[in-house]
Design goal:
The protein has 105 residues and is mainly alpha-helical. It contains five helices and two strands, in the order αββαααα.
């Protein structure tokens, strides 16, 4: 009902040359909405990974390739956020690698 009311208000407010004109709005399917949401989630995961890597590089220099692979295998945003916090305070790269390996078990 709310959609119909909104459509009526929209139509009544947008008149051209004295005629009512309905602007076609593209219908977004459930699959498209889900795909968009998944894309947003993937973007958040990728940004979290990049942030972890940037922090580690700034603090410790070159990151071992096995650590990079382990970080890139993590898809859980909450785990990545936790690792980002840990990356800012952990004492060494070796300790971080151990932490990541424990997380991936």
């Amino acid at each position: 009902m709310r959609f119909l009311r909104s459509a009526f208000v929209y139509i009544s407010k947008h008149k051209l040359d004295g005629k009512r004109e309905i602007h076609r709005m593209r219908y977004v399917t459930s699959i498209e909405r889900i795909a968009k949401q998944e894309g947003i989630e993937e973007g958040k995961v990728e940004n979290a990974r990049e942030s972890i890597i940037e922090v580690l590089e700034a603090r410790f220099g070159k990151i071992p390739s096995d650590a990079l692979e382990s970080i890139n295998c993590i898809n859980d945003i909450s785990v990545l956020k936790s690792l980002l916090r840990d990356a800012t305070t952990i004492s060494s790269m070796e300790a971080f690698v151990e932490l990541v390996n424990e997380t991936n078990l």
